C-alpha cells in the first residue's frame, strides 16, 4: 500500500529522517512513537504525499510518490484518510458540513442517511448542527476521525489523535480505530502515549514503530 525504500527527508538543514525502509501492509495496525520533534508528523506527511522524500523512493498504491500528478495526488488522498494533529475545521460550517467536506470537494453529495450513520458511529449525531467552536476536544477528535473516513479510505493515518483527551475519551477513540481495523482498514497512529499502545495491544495485533536517531525501527515486545 505504502512502500518506502531508503527514504530520507530534510527540511533544508541536516537530515531529519534517514534511510527508512518500511512497507505498510494491508490490514495492519501500527503505532508510531518517538521523541517530540523526531519526525513522526513528517513521516506521516511522506506517507500521504504531502511531502516528497529528499532521497530514496516511496510507492503509494503502486504509484511513484515523487512524481504524482495533481489528479494522482487526489486519487491517493481518497484512499488515505488523515486525522491531523490540530483537527482544524471551518468554523462557519456545521459539524456535519465539515465532516462531509471531503466528499463535497470531490464533487459528491453526501447521502443524508450515511452522514447520520457516520456521526452516530462517532457519537456526535446530536451535535450535527453545532459549529466547531462549540465542540469539546474529544468531540473535535471524533469529528476529525469521521471526516477522515467519509471517503471510505483503505488507510487511516492518525497524528496524536488522543493528544489532549482524558483516558476515557482516548479509549473511546481507540475503540473506533480498532473497529475500523477489524473492518479491514489499515491503521497507523502516531502517539506519545505508551498506555494507549498497551491498551491497544490487548485488543488488536498492533506493531510499534519508533523513530530514533533519524531511523525507523520496529520496537520490541516489551512496550
Ligand atoms: N515545515 C517545516 N519547516 C522546517 N522544519 C520543520 C517543518 N515542519 C517540521 N519541522 C521540524 O522538523 C522536526 C520534526 O517535526 P515533526 O512535526 O515531524 O516531529 P514530531 O515527531 O511529529 O513531533 P511532535 O511529537 O512534537 O509532534 C522538528 O524539529 C520541527 O521543528
TrEMBL record:
Which Gene Ontology BP annotations are present?
A: cell division
Q: Which GO terms describe its molecular function?
A: ATP binding
Instruction: Specify the domain of life of the species encoding this protein.
Output: Bacteria
Q: Does the keyword Cell division apply?
A: yes
Q: Which UniProt keywords apply?
A: ATP-binding, Cell cycle, Cell division, Nucleotide-binding
Looking at the record, the residues that make up the ABC transporter domain are 2-223
Q: Which PROSITE patterns match?
A: ABC_TRANSPORTER_1 (PS00211), ABC_TRANSPORTER_2 (PS50893)
Q: Name one Pfam family in it.
A: ABC_tran
- State the protein's name: Cell division ATP-binding protein FtsE
Which organism is this protein's natural source?
Plastorhodobacter daqingensis
Amino acid at each position: 500500500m505504502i512502500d518506502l525504500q531508503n527514504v530520507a527527508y530534510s527540511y533544508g538543514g541536516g537530515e531529519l529522517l534517514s534511510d527508512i525502509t518500511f512497507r505498510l501492509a494491508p490490514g495492519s495496525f501500527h503505532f508510531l512513537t518517538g521523541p517530540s520533534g523526531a519526525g513522526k508528523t513528517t513521516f506521516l506527511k511522506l506517507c500521504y504525499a504531502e511531502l516528497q522524500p529528499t532521497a530514496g523512493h516511496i510507492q503509494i498504491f503502486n504509484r511513484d510518490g515523487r512524481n504524482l500528478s495533481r489528479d494522482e495526488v487526489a486519487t491517493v488522498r481518497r484512499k488515505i484518510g488523515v486525522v491531523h494533529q490540530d483537527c482544524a475545521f471551518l468554523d462557519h460550517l456545521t459539524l456535519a458540513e465539515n465532516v462531509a467536506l471531503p466528499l463535497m470537494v470531490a464533487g459528491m453529495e453526501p447521502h443524508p442517511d450515511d452522514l447520520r450513520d457516520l456521526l452516530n458511529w462517532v457519537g456526535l449525531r446530536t451535535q450535527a448542527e453545532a459549529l466547531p467552536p462549540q465542540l469539546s476536544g474529544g468531540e473535535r477528535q471524533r469529528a476529525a476521525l469521521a471526516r477522515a473516513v467519509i471517503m471510505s479510505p483503505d488507510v487511516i493515518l492518525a497524528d496524536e489523535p488522543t493528544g489532549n483527551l482524558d483516558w476515557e475519551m482516548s479509549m473511546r477513540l481507540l475503540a473506533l480505530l480498532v473497529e475500523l481495523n477489524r473492518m479491514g482498514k489499515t491503521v497507523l497512529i502516531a502517539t506519545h502515549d505508551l498506555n494507549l499502545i498497551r491498551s491497544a495491544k490487548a485488543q488488536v495485533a498492533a506493531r510499534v514503530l519508533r523513530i530514533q536517531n533519524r531511523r525507523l525501527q520496529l520496537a520490541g515486545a516489551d512496550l
